[in-house]
Amino acid sequence: MEETIQTGTETPEPNASMDDYYRLQNELLITTVVLTGLIFFPVWYFYSLNTALNYLIGACTGVVYLKLLARNVERLGTEKQQISKTHLAVFAGVIIVATQAKQLHVLPVFLGFLTYKGTLLVYTLRTLFTPDQTQS
Fold this sequence. Notes:
By secondary structure, the chain is mainly alpha-helical. 69% of the residues lie in helices and 0% in strands. The chain has five helices and no strands. Helix 2 runs parallel beside helix 4 and helix 3 (88-100) runs antiparallel to helix 4 (106-113). The chain is flat and about 50 Å long.
């Protein structure tokens, strides 16, 4: 005989729209990591390892930023009424560190951070030019 204790709030079952959201979130994160890998090696080849590592620091910060933003959006409406601005501290922190450290260069870090914007562009173009397979 099992007993369950209810705490007053039940966790809602994920519905189809949340499943779509989680799929989109995973797709964007995977695409960002793939783009980071595709960009890292040419930067290393044409510039230097130091510049490529600066780019990689920015790109990893962009992935963290995207993940935090996705978590804030997920909580929107159920736990929060508006999106908090704390995820912007990640961007501000990496730019401040890049300006203060002698080994880091601001431009590659900033462009690496913007890799997630390239992901959004890739996703937008893919959805524009790929016919929706759910419609019959």
